[in-house]
Amino acid sequence: MTDTPSILLVEDTASLSAVYTSYLQRSGYDSTQVASGGDALIELDRGGYRVVLLDLQLPDMDGIEILRMVQEQKLPVAVVIITSNASVNVAVESMRLGAYDFLEKPFSADRLIVTVRNALKHMQLSEMVEAIKERTHFYGFIGSSLAMQSIYRTIDSASASKATVFITGESGTGKEVCAEAIHKCSPRSDKPFVPLNCGAIPKDLMESEIFGHVKGAFTGAISNRDGAASLADGGTLFLDEICEMDLDLQTKLLRFIQSGTFQKVGSTRLEKVNIRIVCATNRKPLQEVQSGRFREDLYYRLHVIPIHLPPLRDRDEDIFEIARSFLVDYAEEEGKEFASFSSDAAEIINSYDWPGNIRQLQNVIRNSIVLNDGQVLTADMLPELLGKNSRMAFQQGSVDNFSSEDSREFLNTHNSTKFTTPKKPRAHNVEPLWLVEKRAIELAIEACGGSIPKAAAMLDINPSTIYRKKVQWDER
Fold it and tell me: Which among 415, 168, 192, 204 is positioned nearest to 302, based on CA atoms?
């Protein structure tokens, strides 16, 4: 017997309670037995149960009331209803209130055990899903895609450590947001977070920016000055674009990481600080090492916990979620009434490649809000750039212009069935846009011998976009 039984049996008939208990015991399950609704509520309040076997006919209350309470309080239990008065209405009402299964008396030991076993598996899966429940917002990040969930978990795991973190990713993917998230999750969160862009500071000033200088150390050093290392003491120093750092300074940085000590420019006194270093680059650091532009020993000192941020074009599920968040935030900031996107605008946003990643999306939404008014942001309010460079060119008006020129040219070149639309469409010829898109994609797949990756390459979209749209079509 365990200290916290996993099964609660609520049955007011003592003989039946004994029979059900024996069934459970023979299969290795522990259970607690109660004979009233009041006692059942007390046990549920104590917690620790995963399955409740609930008789609907109790001396002090209807079992449905207990089921309703479980649902309202969102208790993590699977409820199996037991009743001798089975009916379609009772079953439907029980399931509507969240019952996992329904047993009609009399039932066999095998039927009970199979039901309990399935209910326990159901709860186990539910707990696993809850443990990795999608987070749509995480310390400045927006997105619930699997790629971002993995990054959130890495940040959670790495935050308590002092180990250096090396963040890679294209410009605009949120590397500084990632560094700040690591800091905010860590025990150092109440200490300074000091960012330093190694690519934005002149080479001859970089050492002073990191370590500081004393008065008279060089022309213009009119007073003593603390560098980023001193300012970040106790907290986190974020070195962005680390691969832009000069090789001579890389040597000093390596010595600093190894010893925790440094000298200000022009000083002979060693100073010691306690900081965590997080660095980032939009380059491929190993290639920089192989080309001789980045020290190998420094790379391995920094590359303890790697985090790669995916480009926005590989986060199809997140694009519109991020855009919607920006829309709400910037509309409030600018005093505008925008609250949603039109379906046309949403399609353009979802189909664009976003070479500038989140930073570009951010600028596009702000631009559209600042230069327009209304409650719904429409396609014609978006910059023309999006219409010309989207993965699936999309324009309001004529159905003629919906498919991309590239895909049309490809299909014609390969002598497949031509993609044709009326040159001067009339009302009865106009089709829903999703059907036109569906036909264009299906023709591309057929022309590529059924290969979705090849079709996606020719249509200039991600294969995941086609898979996602096929699911949407099947659901229509």
Answer: 168
314-475: in CATH 1.10.8.60: yes
Residues 40 and 34: beta-carbon distance below 8 Å = yes
Three-state SS annotation for 12-67: CCHHHHHHHHHHHHHCCCCEEEECCHHHHHHHHHHCCCCEEEEECECCCCEHHHHH
Residue 335 gets the label, from left (phi > 0), alpha (psi -120 to 50) or beta, of left
- Least confident among 82-86, 94-98, 234-238, 428-432: 428-432
**Mean pLDDT, range 351-369, rounded to an integer:** 93
Q: Is the pLDDT of residue 408 over 50?
A: no
| pTM recorded for the entire structure | 0.59
Whether the pLDDT of residue 244 is over 60: the answer is yes
Q: What are the DSSP calls for 195-261, one per residue?
A: EEETTSS-HHHHHHHHHEE-TTSSTT--S-EE-HHHHTTTSEEEEETGGGS-HHHHHHHHHHHHHSE
Torsion of CA 408, 411, 412, 418, to 10 degrees: -90
Domains 138-308 and 314-475 share a fold: no
| CA pair distance 57, 374, nearest whole angstrom | 58
Q: Identify the pLDDT of residue 151.
A: 93
**185-203 tens-digit pLDDT:** 999 999 999 999 999 898 8
Within 8 A by CB and 6+ apart from 161, the residues are 305
What is the architecture, at CATH level 2, of domain 7-131?
3-Layer(aba) Sandwich (3.40)
A 10 A CB-CB count for 169 gives 18
The DSSP result for 152-190, as a single string, is HHHHHHHTTS---EEEE--TTS-HHHHHHHHHHHSTTTT
Q: Per-residue pLDDT averaged across 110-114, rounded?
A: 91
pLDDT in tens, 77-97: 999 988 776 566 776 677 777
Top CATH class of 138-308 equals alpha beta
> Angle formed by the axes of helices 88-96 and 63-72, to 10°?
20
Helix (H, G, I), strand (E, B) or coil at 5: coil
Nearest-5° Cα angle at 415, 387 to 401: 20
Domain ranges for the chain: 7-131, 138-308, 314-475
β-bridge mates for residue 168, sequence order: 281, 308
Taking residues 37-52, report their average pLDDT.
88
Query: 109-122: b or e for each residue (b if 16 or more CB lie within 10 Å)?
Result: eeebbebbeebbee
